[in-house]
Each structure stands twice: as C-alpha cells, then as structure tokens.
C-alpha cells in the first residue's frame, strides 16, 4: 500500500482566492464589518485622499489585518506584515496587498482615537441585534505588562540606593587612580591602567548625573515612581503571588449573558479604588436600561463610590474586605466592635462602651466620626491584643449606615455573586492566556488604549461568531448598515427641504454641510 500523494508543485491550477475561503470563515465577518464602517466618521487618517502624491493604503484594509491578527494570536506588526505574503486568508482580506511593518506601526500610532471608536461602533451593532443582555454586568481589572522593564522603573528608595552605591564606586576608583599615578604596588598584568580607570570613572560620573536628574524629575512630578522607557507606565502588584511588574491596569465591564465586553478604561493606577461608579454608569448608559446589577470584588468596596452608583440605579453586589489588625489578634479586629445606632456608641470585644469624641476628615476627604474610651483603654487587660497605640479609636464615616445596609444585602445575594468570576474572567482568560496578549508593543496610555481597543474588538467579534454564527452575523450587519443608510438618507432629505425653504435662491446648496 502506497502513501497519500499530493498535487505536483509544477501542476498549473486554475483557482482563485474566493473559492479557497469557506463561507463560514471569520475573514468574511471582518471583511463585512470593516467595509461597512464610515472611516471618515471614525476619524481615521487617510480616510480621504489627495490627488497628488503616492496613494496610501485604505484604513479599512489595515484595520482588517489587525483584527485578523488579534483573532489569531498575532499582534506584532512585523509578524502581521509577513502573514500578508504567506497566509491565504490574509491575502483574500487584503486583495493581495502587502503592507510593510513600518506602515502598520504608523497606522496604529496615528489612529488611536479612531480605534477606540471602532470598538464602540461594533458594540452598538451588537446591542442593536440583541446580543447584549440588560440585567447584570461584572467589573474587574486586568494588568498587562508595559513596554518598560523593571530596571527602567525607579522610586525614591531605588534612586537613593543607586546614587549611594555609585558614589562609593567612584571613590573606590579614584583611590585606584591615585595609586596607579604614583605607581605604588602597581602590577601591569594584574591592575587596570590609568586610562582604563578614567574610562570607568567617566561612565560612573555619567550614571551619577543621570540618577540625580531622575531624582529631580521625581521630586518635581510629585509622583512616587518614574519610568524611563514608557513614562506613563507604573510598577504595580500583579496579583496571585506574581510579584511586581511595570504595567497598565485596565478596568473592564463584562455583560453576564453574552460574556462580551461592554466598555473599558486604560489606567496606570495599581488600585481599583475610584473606578466603580464611573464604569457602572458607563455600562448602564450603553445598555440603555434604568436598572442594572453590578458584581465586583473587594477591591471596589468603597462607600462613596458604591452609594453614587446606587443613586444612579446600579445595584452593587460587592463583598467587603476582611478587616485586619496590626496586633494580629483576630478577636479584636475592626468588625468585632459592634455599633449601636440607637445610642450612637460602639461596644468593644471587652464589653466596654466607646462614645463619640470628635469629627474629623479622612485621607480621602470624607467626613468621619471618632469613637473612643480613653479611660477604659488605659486600664484594659486586653489592650496588648487590641492595639499598640496609647488607646484604640474607631473611625466611622458619615455614610457608614447606608454602606452597612448594602453589605447586609450582599449576604442575601451570595448565590448571584458566585457567577462573577465566570463572567468577568472569561475575556481575561481568552485574551491574555489563550491569545497571548500579555504585553503591550507600544508606549503611553493612549497607545495602550488603542491596543486594548483592537484586542477587545476582536474578542467581542469572536463571541458574536460563537453565539450566532458567521452567516447570520454578516446578514445582520448588512441589514443594520442598510437601516443606518436609510435613516441618514431621510435626514438628508429633510435637511435639504429645510434648506430649500429658508436659503435664498442665489445661494448654492452645495455650500451647506450635512
């Protein structure tokens, strides 16, 4: 029995690219979506061309290539350029064109805001055809490494240590230089020459000057750290025991039914504090619903933010963090002090009463009330287990009663909250671990935001394909584009009728911009 044989390489074949791409290929979805987009409205560079000069690539052509790349685990401009010469699907998408790596980098660099608009436009289409639910969303953040190594990130301590170490080495080599000049105990085969020492000192002095300049810049910026390759990036905790790395932290809202990304925000803040109400309101407005339930982890448990979201019709299900205690005694942590709203007092674990003492303002600028019992603390046998301070004080924010009610509601809805991870971790698992998008190729928040737009657009497209299939998605896209075109046509007719009535006949209608 022989082997399976292929077709001879010398055989002339009459076949076109159209016949080689299946009807259910995702390439056809990308092609349809990008061709229906209004590139001028999106704000793409070269959306309109000039008569003179060399013609550029159409922006929709390059957008097709990027979306295909992110859908197929290819985010590098260099690799995408090579795919255009060897990948049949890419050849079909680009009609045989082969943009260079430089062209692709230029496109991404000069169309940051437009790529964000593409993501939002795709999402509006998905919403119109009913892929997004309108009841529950989940909020979480994802950290992706920036184009900046940890060695190129500095804070006050690392700068001071480096300066101290550099100064010590300069003193050491100055001593060696002095010995070499005097020829005291100098061995030509073993020791450095005066010229070699001077070269080393030149480099050390340059390093010292560089770090002194960094120290000055850090003081003037009032920041806690500075990155030299990508100034916008920050060193932050990666979570799950992965230590620290220089990254960006992107806030992502995911819809529960479709597992599709509703909206996102790229930040360089390592904390999730302060983003809850903004992202919740964005999700609610986009989904066009009066009421929505939002699930988030303990990192978002912030009283003022939660109450602001609740006031806007967002039901927040967020667990509060387990309070700690500097002394390490669990029985004397903050939650063991019971508040009595009727008497406006706290009762400590030793059954002593802490009364209202004074009003203050916390680090966030929120009004807070201090409760204490200085006499009881001074004579308490359990003080060493409770606090290392002179006495224990409990701070209660002005809106703590409302937050306590939200915490009680969360305990009743734990069953619903259990679905949070399977909702919001779905896109992170796909984009970061399956597709390998774990590092940005560009620098700066706007550039990182543009890369997020491409990755999240590709992810939502993948979800839409999995939910309704390629052919139905293309059919829906064509119908949606026809509907939009019809609406715009009617608006233009109304405007022209208005212009005909009010504009004097001596004026030309072509001067009126619609």
Task: Please describe the structure with a list of short key phrases separated by commas or semicolons.
single chain, 514 residues, alpha+beta, 6-stranded mixed β-sheet, disordered C terminus
What can be said about this structure in brief?
Strand 10 (345-347) and strand 11 (353-361) form a beta hairpin.
Describe the fold and architecture.
- With 514 residues, the chain is α+β, with helices and mostly antiparallel strands.
- Helix content is 49%, strand content 14%.
- It has helices at 17-20, 26-36, 39-42, 59-71, 77-86, 88-94, 101-110, 112-128, 156-182, 194-221, 276-287, 303-311, 374-378, 383-386, 400-412, 414-417, 420-434, 445-468, 470-502, and strands at residues 136-145, 153-155, 225-227, 234-237, 244-255, 261-267, 292-296, 314-317, 338-340, 345-347, 353-361, 367-372, 393-397.
- Helix 2 packs antiparallel against helix 4 (59-71) and helix 5 (77-86) crosses helix 7 (101-110).
- The radius of gyration is 31 Å and the shape is flat.
- The termini are far apart.
SSE arrangement:
Layout: H1 17-20, H2 26-36, H3 39-42, H4 59-71, H5 77-86, H6 88-94, H7 101-110, H8 112-128, E1 136-145, E2 153-155, H9 156-182, H10 194-221, E3 225-227, E4 234-237, E5 244-255, E6 261-267, H11 276-287, E7 292-296, H12 303-311, E8 314-317, E9 338-340, E10 345-347, E11 353-361, E12 367-372, H13 374-378, H14 383-386, E13 393-397, H15 400-412, H16 414-417, H17 420-434, H18 445-468, H19 470-502
Parallel strand pairs: 1-7, 7-8
Antiparallel strand pairs: 1-5, 2-3, 4-5, 5-6, 9-10, 10-11, 11-12, 12-13
Helix pairs in contact: 2-4, 2-6, 2-19, 4-18, 5-6, 5-7, 8-18, 9-10, 11-12, 18-19
């Amino acid at each position: 029995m022989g082997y399976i044989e292929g077709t001879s390489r010398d055989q002339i074949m009459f076949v076109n690219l159209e016949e080689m791409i299946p009807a259910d290929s995702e390439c056809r979805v990308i092609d349809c979506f990008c061709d229906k987009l209004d590139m001028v409205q999106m704000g793409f560079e070269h959306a309109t061309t000039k008569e003179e000069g060399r013609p550029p690539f159409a922006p929709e052509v390059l957008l097709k290539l990027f979306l295909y790349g992110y859908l197929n685990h290819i985010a590098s401009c260099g690799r995408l350029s090579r795919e255009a010469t060897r990948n049949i699907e890419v050849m079909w998408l680009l009609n045989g064109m082969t943009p260079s790596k430089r062209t692709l980098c230029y496109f991404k660099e000069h169309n940051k805001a437009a790529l964000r608009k593409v993501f939002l436009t795709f999402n509006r289409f998905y919403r119109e055809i009913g892929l997004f639910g309108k009841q529950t969303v989940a909020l979480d953040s994802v950290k992706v490494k920036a184009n900046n190594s940890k060695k190129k990130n500095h804070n006050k301590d690392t700068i001071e240590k480096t300066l101290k170490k550099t100064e010590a080495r300069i003193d050491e080599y100055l001593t060696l230089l002095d010995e070499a000049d005097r020829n005291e105990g100098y061995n030509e085969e073993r020791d450095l020459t005066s010229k070699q020492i001077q070269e080393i000192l030149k480099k050390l002095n340059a390093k010292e000057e560089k770090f002194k300049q960094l120290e000055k810049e850090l003081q003037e910026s009032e920041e806690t750290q500075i990155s030299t390759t990508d100034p916008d990036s920050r060193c932050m905790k990666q979570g799950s025991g992965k230590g620290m790395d220089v990254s960006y932290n992107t806030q992502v809202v995911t819809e529960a039914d479709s597992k599709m990304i509703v909206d996102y925000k790229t930040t360089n803040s390592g904390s999730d504090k302060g983003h809850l109400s903004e992202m919740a309101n964005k999700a609610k407005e986009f989904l066009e619903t009066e009421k929505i339930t939002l699930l988030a982890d303990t990192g978002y448990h912030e009283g003022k933010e939660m109450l602001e979201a609740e006031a806007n019709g967002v039901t927040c299900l967020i667990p509060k963090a387990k309070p700690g205690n500097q002394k390490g005694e669990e029985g004397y942590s903050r939650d063991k002090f019971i508040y009595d709203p009727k008497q406006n007092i706290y009762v400590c674990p030793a059954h002593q009463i802490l009364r209202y003492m004074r009003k203050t303002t916390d680090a966030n600028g929120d009004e807070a009330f201090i409760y204490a019992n200085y006499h009881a603390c001074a004579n308490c046998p359990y003080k060493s287990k409770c606090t290392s301070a002179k006495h224990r004080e409990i701070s209660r924010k002005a809106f703590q009663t409302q937050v306590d009610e939200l915490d009680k509601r969360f305990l009743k809805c734990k069953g619903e909250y259990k679905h949070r991870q399977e909702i919001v971790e779905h896109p992170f698992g796909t984009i970061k671990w399956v597709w390998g998008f774990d590092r940005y190729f560009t620098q700066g928040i706007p550039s990182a935001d543009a890369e997020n737009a491409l990755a999240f657009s590709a992810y939502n497209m993948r979800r839409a394909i999995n939910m309704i299939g390629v052919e139905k998605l293309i059919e829906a896209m064509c119908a949606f584009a026809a509907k939009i075109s019809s609406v715009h046509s009617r608006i233009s007719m109304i405007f022209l009728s208005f212009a005909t009535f009010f504009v004097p006949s001596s004026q030309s209608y072509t001067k009126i911009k619609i």
